[in-house]
Amino acid sequence: MLVDRHRLRQQWRGLRHVKPDRGGNSKSPEASSAQSSPSQSNASQSSPPPATDQRLERFHADLARSCQRFEQRQRGVPKITFDDSLPVVLRKDEIAAAIRDHQVIVVCGETGSGKSTQLPKICLELGRGVAGTIGHTQPRRIAARSVATRIAEELSVQVGREVGFKVRFADATSQQTHIKLMTDGILLAETQSRPFLDDYDTIIVDEAHERSLNIDFLLGNLHRLVSKRRDLKVIITSATIDAERFAAHFRPVVGTVPVLEVSGRMYPVEMLYRPPSIDENGDEPDWLKGVADAVHEVCSRGPGDVLLFMPTEREILEAAKTLRGRTFGGSKPDILPLYARLSAAEQQRVFHTSSTRRIVISTNVAESSLTVPGIRYVVDTGTARISRYSPKSKLQRLPIEPVSQASADQRAGRCGRVGPGVCIRLYSEEDYQSRERYTPPEILRSNLANVILQTKTLGLGDIEDFPFLEPPKPDAIKDGYKTLFELGAVTEQHALTDMGRKLARLPVDPRIARIIWAAHEENCLGEVLIIASALEVQDPRERPLEKQQQADESHKRFADETSDFLSDLKLWDFYHKLKSELSKGQLQKACHQNFLSWTRLREWVDVHAELVEIVREFLGSPALKTGDRRPANAAASAPASASSRGPSRKPVPSRRGAVQGAANSSVDTTFGRRHDVT
Q1: Nearest to 178 by CA among 154, 149, 199
Q2: What pLDDT, in 10s, does the model give residues 48-61?
Q3: Is the pLDDT at 378 greater than 90, yes or no?
Q4: What pTM did the predictor assign?
Q5: Of 12, 26, 269, 631, which is the most exposed, with the fewest CB atoms less than 10 Å away?
Q6: Residues 294 and 388 in one domain
Q7: CB 1 within 8 A of CB 132
Q8: In this structure, is residue 467 part of a structural domain?
């Protein structure tokens, strides 16, 4: 077994260094200089075997156990069958030959080609997955679970035995596992404890074209590893956009890297553009009406399931509420939401077809990471929440913005797999033509401070020396180190500090993470999470050119002469008071009358909810609730070490003092106030 190899080699080297004496008996180097007297020699005949013999016996026993495990795993390989209708299976022999003859290959497959489910089976048929495990990474947890379930079904085995998955907080693998699905972040974390990835004989990096930071880190790590582990096979799957780039990245270390293109099963897709009408207030598109009209239009064309793309969980739930109970095409459909926080059982519902029409409402997880069966129609809002660094605010933000042309094309392709499809885009054709062709890799739209922090936390060495596909510019690296030093995350010599390790635990911009940690220590998370989420969205206060004075007068109620941050708290309270008293339509009208963007306010609430979830998960503050100004139990948000020190003698600061203290606690707040008021 590969996992035993390093330990057995060390034992064997130790045995080889033992020197025999003149009589042919083995002696350790320590004992070779000592002379035994005749009496000692006679006594040794009745004594236990020498230490060297015991070590040799242990070595043989360990080797036998390893061989036994190998034979057991070999006997446990399930019967492998393939679906000949899948495009990737039609080229199975060619792909198998490339895997057998080369250390790294790139498989370029369109949506629906079957690469995610069939490549691990091809590797298993080649004898991989016995001496080690076939590691198969996915960008998202939901995809890792669903692909594992699908492969297990095709091999007629249980998930958790021959085929398993591992995601955060869930490990469904065993010693019998041959194929292991996981997120790329899980495999990246494993490199810290097992830098040579000895558990694996094959690594499949799926959906590499998404180019998340985790994927780029993983590819850089594998770039270093393949020259040290010539037995390791690496398979990279990608859409056509980045295939040659991946191959060129590995050629200097492994030589030839074949690029195999596999077509998808595609029928013609009719494209329709239906930009939504403006709402009654005259300033915001009525997305829900546009969605309902589009779903009604496609359902009137005939039978078939519908896939609706929405940007966030909130929009998914609102769309589900709007569509649920309505009749489309003469019958009431099943409404199936699909997003990351759903339970595994709820997520699996979308993969089971039925005689009733289904309307699946999903985030961009259904764009390429997984395939929902039976889709004949797609309704695309054309937006997604995309992480992007804002040079203006010097913060990593999560705005809802238009997706690229490549992403829009991926979405449209989801309805051309079972027959001719129809895709309705809720934006104009001119809008589509004006969009960027591809979504830039995350490293090019990320704060380099965060990239540096993750590089150091993962033990990947200096960022300047790491083999990225697209190395960051030296000036950007310098600015990133400067930011981390200001936050106390690194020393002047660029060494990671304890605070740096704390900041790395929170999957947010390092500046926001520093504010959250300060609030965590000062027991004012309730207020500061509101402020932190405000920094990640555009200011919801609107200032139209023709009504600037009126807008300024209306916004005076939120002003606070001591701090812009406290103004944010007043605005938050104002919005939530209106929300608790008014209907949705009345709330939109009230926002318009007070020169506030209802859309941006909702985005602020969404980002706040995400930060609350992050704090609950990573800092253990279960009493914190979405929309709260202060945790129900302030002690719940205190550091874990506080209880061990006993009651603090330090008085709890007032709300104003707490917020100012957290906001100014060794954090450079010059980035804090946004000046992008429209």
Answers
A1: 199
A2: 456 667 778 888 88
A3: yes
A4: 0.75
A5: 12
A6: yes
A7: yes
A8: no
Per-residue model confidence (pLDDT) at position 189: 86
How do residues 315-355 score in pLDDT, each as one tens digit? 898 999 999 878 887 788 999 999 877 777 788 888 888 88
CB 427 within 8 A of CB 398: no
Instruction: Average the pLDDT over each of 153-167, 339-353, 577-591 and give the range with the smallest value.
Output: 339-353
For tokens 């129609």, name the residue: 377
| φ, ψ for residue 509, nearest 5 deg | -55, 140
**Cα-Cα-Cα-Cα dihedral sign, residues 498, 499, 503, 509:** negative
Interatomic CA distance for residues 572 and 577, integer angstroms: 9
Q: How far apart are CA 243 and CA 105, in angstroms?
A: 10
Distance of alpha carbon 567 from alpha carbon 578, whole angstroms: 17
**Are 251 and 321 part of one and the same domain?**
no
Residues 109 and 152 in one domain: yes
- Mean pLDDT of the chain, nearest integer: 82
Where does 263-396 have alpha helices with state H? 287-299, 313-323, 344-348, 365-368
Bridge partners of 639? Answer: none
pLDDT, average across residues 566-591: 92
pLDDT in tens, 165-208: 999 778 999 999 999 999 998 999 898 888 899 999 999 999 99
pLDDT for 600: 85
Q: Are residues 167 and 21 in the same domain?
A: no
Give CA–CA dist 336/362, Å, rounded.
Answer: 8
* Dist CA 145 CA 159 (whole Å): 9
pLDDT higher at 565 or 638: 565
Looking at the fold, whether 288 and 381 belong to one and the same domain comes out as: yes
CATH number for position 325: 3.40.50.300
Among 369, 339, 362, 451, CA closest to 139: 369
Q: Which amino acid, residue 222?
A: L
CB atoms within 10 A of CB 593: 10
472 belongs to a structural domain: no
Does residue 245 sit in the same domain as residue 369?
Answer: no
Of 262, 291, 325, the one marking the end of a domain is 262
* Structural domain includes residue 500: no
Q: Which of 201, 174, 161, 203 is nearest to 186 (CA)?
A: 203
In this structure, are 324 and 343 located in the same domain?
yes
pLDDT band of 518, cuts 50, 70, 90: very high
Total residues found in the chain within this entry: 678
Structural domains counted in the chain: 4
CA torsion sign for 421, 427, 428, 431 is negative
Q: Which of 410, 442, 474 is the last residue of a domain?
A: 442
Task: Give the range of the structural domain holding residue 627, as residue numbers without chain letter.
Answer: 506-671
If you average pLDDT over residues 259-281, what whole number do you get? 83
Residues 561, 523 share a domain: yes
Q: Are 252 and 404 spatial neighbours (Cβ–Cβ below 8 Å)?
A: no
In a domain, 49, yes or no: yes
